[in-house]
User: Fold these one by one.
Assistant:
Number 1:
Amino acid sequence: MKFFARLIGRLAIGLLLLGATGMIVSMLLGVADVVGTKFLDYPVPGTLEFTESTMVLIVFGALAFTQSRRGHIRVEIFYNMGSPRAKSLMEVFTHLIGIVYFALLAWTGYQEAIYSWNLGEATMGTIRFPLYPARFMLAIGVSLLILQLLSDLVEDAGRFLRGEGPAEAERSEPAAPGPQPG
């Protein structure tokens, strides 16, 4: 199981880095477009289309990585009142709901990506960007999130059965820099 978790973690980091690269390229392209439009009276063609497609990669590429760090937003009204075992049960329940929801999203995403591929769907503009890469990235990002949720489900179900609390402390952010006790 640890091998599976490490593999998902590496894939999540790879997708996150791909999204970060896309964000940097989009920012540079956006700056060039603004400078070109404002000072040279010549915008960079295709900036909007490229940025739209890259946003999908940025958002859906980070989902699995964020889940691996248990960094998604959680409403903790009832969560904090529960025992460690109850917290693990709540985690199991939310993982199950997430798996169902994102499985439906992945299924629809793959259908749309294949449809877009077969149709040769592209953006309307000066430069026509194909839409299927962004649609496939949505489906791939969500599929990786599902794998991470499955891994977390197994881990938290085991913790529940053993009467332990969830693994949130193990994956939290590193301590602030400075002198460390010990």
Number 2:
Amino acid sequence: MAPSLGRILRSKKGQSLIELSLIAPLMLLLAYGAVEVGSVISTYLTISHTTREGANLTSRGTLPNPALDAIILAAAPTLRTGASGNEPQWRVIYSKIIQKPGTACPTEPCQYIVDTAANGQIVKGTLNKTSKLGTPTGIPIPQTTLPGIQDVKAGQTFHVIEVFYDYAPSIITFVGKGINTDFYERTVFIGVS
């Protein structure tokens, strides 16, 4: 009996099995981590592309509501609406920025506000975030909020798309805990229509 137990302990097959059982969980964890990092990068790129396309569409004269619906549809499956939607996870905000009415602008920079008209600011999604530009109240937007605005000539109109996204890991890994899960992206286009 003793010689057969010693033979088993010295067996190469047993050693390989033990090594595999020790290394397999680590390799699986690394593979899931790589998938999660890829998902984070894909989500960020989708959000960045969404803001650019939305600002481009609205600056060229597309009405804001259809433009927002189009970019949200194009951003699926990251941004989803309807029965299988994830609206509590994201918010898309369109803001039309205009020169403050009744305020002379003899020298730049001019004072700009979020347009107080009906379509001055449109919000889609239910994530609890507010526009970093402000609300349509007539209060001027600080130049620090829109850097580069001081170089723009008087009377310009800006179209801004902001996207907030609360990233939730699709796979339970340690990677989701090590990153900032609140994504924010903003694009500003000058109106060309």
Number 3:
Amino acid sequence: MGWFNQLMGFSAPKAEMPAPVNGPLGLAVGKAIQFDPVMSLLLDGKSSVTIPGSQAIWSLGLVDLGQSSWLSRYYMNDEEYWLQVHTTGDIAGQVESVILFNYRSYVTVNSEAELRRLAGPESLIGLPTYTYEGVEYTREWGTESGQTELVPLSESVRNVDEAYRVEHRSMLYARETGLTDRRELLLFSVEEDVEGTISLSTSLGISLYTTDISVL
């Protein structure tokens, strides 16, 4: 699917990068996360992000941002949820942010025209603001006054059965919720897997404190 690569700037997924067994906050594949139940009450009327109960971690995704900065992504057995931890120094180093994401949609892209319409130059993704489900978010990445390019991220994913790589072109938006240090995040990602399948995922997230989760 060379036209996808040309349009989005993809390169072929590379060989898998080794993923750590233990990550930040003691998180690892096979462990479980307990979310503070008070969060659901706190976010009521402030955010539409759903807070689950206890969730088992099925797989780990690792993104090397360079300059000793990492994103560790933990995908749950319940596929509606995933947790992202940004660290600096090393993978299990200083925690800079923790975000719980809910998957809101996942669409397979079958043509260049469809990609242009959904996430390319004919879409609204990449503009300074984006309105999603009637709520306006502000772009976090890019300084252009108009539409900006999606940001490339290369993710190494591992679970107990397999390891593989996913190439992303992503754009992040955010808004204030009115709660201290709790922003709502809107993440779009055009993804290509090792088989060449292209998809667009939409995730809605909320900033967490490290004390909002317990690792079981």
Number 4:
Amino acid sequence: MNVPRQGAASLPSERLLRILSAALALAGIGVATYIAIAEAGGSAPVCLAGGEGCATVAASDYSELAGINVAVMGIVGYVAIGAAALVRGDAGRFAGFLLALAGFGFSAYLTYLELFVIDAICQWCVASAVLMTLLLAVNAARALVYAGAELLDADPEH
């Protein structure tokens, strides 16, 4: 039984946060895999809202970093965050938080490039950025509220 810090009674249980993190990571894997498969086939993800934003972003020099498609990097990141959701205790909490923080930072950088350098928006990239933002929020809550919960469980005064 993980007891949250005092005043956290209105927050979701750590179990629910772990499930949310895993579900969001799975959705992220789906989005990033779709982007990677579309680009590997020599085309671009289909913009469901219309327009050429996805094609423009996919054709840009920024769709790869050190020769690796950024969508593939996204898949790896989402898998790592999903794995952290499966790990109990502070190791899983802080790994999930740090991975989500790094993913959020990278997504923010890519969004900056879309808006101010490439001058095109890919809705699939936006979806990935939203998922990563949600993952940061969920994993931050898990890490900050439940850090050291096992110590509280072992403390006879709590």
